[in-house]
Specification:
Elements (H helix, E strand, L loop, with lengths): L2 H12 L13 H12 L14 H8 L3 H13 L7 H13 L2 H14 L4 H12 L16 H17 L4 H9 L4 H16 L5 H17 L5 E5 L6 H10 L8 H7 L4 E8 L8 E8 L6 H5 L12 E9 L9 H16 L5 E4 L6 H19 L5 H4 L11 H10 L9 H9 L10 H20 L2 E2 L2 E2 L2 H8 L3 E6 L6 H7 L3 E6 L4 H11 L6 H4 L3 H12 L1
Parallel strand pairs: 4-5
Antiparallel strand pairs: 1-2, 2-3, 3-4, 5-9, 6-7, 8-9
GO cellular component, one term: peroxisomal matrix
GO molecular function: malonyl-CoA decarboxylase activity
Pfam family, one: MCD_N
């Protein structure tokens, strides 16, 4: 094993799980790394401190809330020329020292006490509304006087300034710090974590403003696209292993394969966070669109790149929780398509092999609610009575229900096909996957319901599934759904092993994205539509009556 492989392996083994104790201290490790970078290789503490009792350790290592609050106030209130790295470092270090509860308290203070001055805004609006508009009859000759217009310009300028919250100063000054952009993403990760506990209006406004700032600072023009290869530093490859969110990298052989012949990995980097990608995408060069993830990850050997006609995007991972909701993936996919088309003109198909993370959650909830309703109304044995119920829906076709009842055997019981299906799919042991008879009985309803979930189940007019919404808003179409495409535990838990191919047609990307954005329209192939075509036809007939 070479030094690079050893370094990656050792670091990966030694690095703590980034999700551990997230609720209590979601960003402590990253903050400590930032402070280490800002102050150089400063170890700061010797082994004796680890032997101190908890009270002394807290006293030595954790600043009081008031001290950090004063530090934050200094960053905001000082003249621009007075705010140097030392002042910003003091705030970064202080924030790092706080417990999560005190960080929560500090961010709420920032959101409420450093918001905009609404009394000033109201006064300026009152002044503005009291002026006669330029060109009104009150002005002689109908010609606006320059002196009169200057009053408008002055009030408008003051109004624009007063509508900016005071905390904007903190964000902009932190962004000038060498590690400031990374630190701001960490602050936003904390804000998002707090908002999961409850919707606090002032904190939501703070998050929205910081998100807008980060979106501006991370515009595509400020990002560098880099192809990640086996020749990159071990520290970078380690991050690829660590942050891969879709299909975990199992070992060094797996990593080398994903970066080798017939594969590509591209990442977006920013100069202020040079040592890690903000987001990265993994690409397989294939003859045809893959139907299973096993074809991509396990099949050997890869085809010659000259024979490939399809670039398959099989994993896209964000490395910064604080950038949630900022769609860097849209620009990354477009850039990669452009680059691949230039480098490999023989590639004509750009597709994905994507998970469907919300399908089983939606399906099990649907089965449970409908089965419960059926029991409450005592209609499970009386199909004729079901039509009279407003909220009842048997999501199974008659032949699907018969097949499930005939095939369930000892694995699941129930009075109806839906109840049997619920009892089969709920256990995490997935015993149904070991029975050819059950697989045959479950495939038709699962594939049909999956198509319905992707094409028809929506939230605020957009696809309910988060991954579907991501690709559709980027201009993709739903091309194909694949049975037993991911038989890992994660794949079975999320979507009963079903995966979906989205296709990006360069000539249609903007059109599809616009139609989805404006009307919620989802483009799909006939192969997908046919699963729900009878439903669509019935809806069309009903609309004509």
């Amino acid at each position: 094993m070479n030094k690079k492989a050893l370094a990656i392996l050792m670091r990966a083994r030694m690095r703590p799980n980034h999700l551990t104790n997230f609720a209590l201290s979601p960003i402590s490790n990253e903050l400590n790394q930032i402070l280490s970078n800002s102050h150089g290789n400063r170890s700061g503490e010797n082994g004796e401190h680890h032997a101190m009792e908890h009270g002394k350790e807290t006293l030595n290592h954790q600043r009081s809330f008031e001290v950090v609050r004063e530090s934050m106030h200094s960053v905001i209130s000082m003249n621009k020329t007075e705010v140097g790295d030392s002042v910003l470092n003091e705030f970064l270090e202080g924030y790092c020292s706080l417990s999560f509860e005190n960080r929560r308290k500090l961010l709420l203070t920032l959101a409420k006490e450093y918001d905009l001055n609404r009394a000033q805004v109201r006064e300026l609006i009152k002044q503005y509304l009291g002026l006669q508009p330029p060109g009104s009859e009150a002005q002689s000759g109908g010609v606006a006087d320059e002196g009169f217009l200057s009053t408008f310009y002055r009030i408008e300028r003051n109004l624009r300034h007063s509508l900016k919250p005071v905390y904007e100063t903190l964000f902009e000054r932190l962004n000038t710090h060498p590690e400031g952009l990374k630190f701001l993403t960490i602050i936003r990760a904390d804000i998002l974590s707090i908002l999961t506990e409850g919707n606090i209006a002032s904190l939501r406004a703070l998050d929205s403003y910081l998100k807008e700032k980060l979106t501006t600072w991370l515009s595509p023009a400020a990002l560098e696209l880099h192809q990640i290869t086996w020749d990159d530093p071990a520290s970078l490859l380690e991050k690829i292993v660590f942050y891969e969110a879709v299909h975990p990298i199992s070992n060094l052989i797996d990593l080398k394969r994903r970066l080798g012949v017939g594969r590509r990995c591209f990442g977006y980097f920013h100069s202020a966070i040079p040592r890690e990608p903000l987001i990265f995408i993994e690409v397989a060069l294939l003859k045809n669109i893959a139907e299973t993830i096993q074809e991509v990850l396990w099949d050997n050997p890869p085809i010659a790149e000259s024979e490939a006609t399809c670039a398959l995007f099989y994993s896209i991972s964000s490395t910064q929780p604080g950038l949630a909701g900022i769609n860097l993936g849209k620009f990354l996919i477009k850039r990669v398509i452009t680059l691949v088309k230039i480098d490999m003109p023989h590639i004509s198909v750009f597709a994905t092999l994507s998970p469907i993370p919300g399908f089983m959650q939606w399906l099990l909830s649907k089965l449970a609610s409908q089965s419960k309703l059926a029991k409450a109304e005592d209609i499970s044995r009386s199909p004729a009575d079901r039509s009279g119920l407003t909220f009842y829906e048997n999501i199974l076709e008659p032949e699907e229900e018969r097949a499930l009842i005939d095939s369930s055997g000892d694995l699941a019981s129930g009075k109806s096909g839906m109840e049997i299906m619920l009892n089969l799919l709920t256990p995490t042991t997935h015993e149904w996957t070991n029975s050819d008879k059950l697989l045959s009985a479950l495939k038709p309803p699962l594939m049909r319901l999956c198509a319905r979930y992707l094409l028809q189940e929506k939230k605020r007019g957009k696809a309910l599934d988060s991954v579907a919404n991501f690709h559709l808003q980027n201009g993709a179409m739903v091309q194909r759904i694949n049975w037993m495409a991911d038989q890992s535990e994660k794949g079975l838990n999320q979507s009963a092993g079903i995966m979906v191919n989205y296709v990006y047609r360069p000539e249609n990307i903007e059109e599809y994205a616009q139609l989805y954005f404006s009307k919620g329209h989802i483009h799909s192939s006939y192969d997908v539509k046919r699963y729900i075509q009878p439903v669509l036809e019935n809806e069309s007939k009903d609309s004509l009556l």
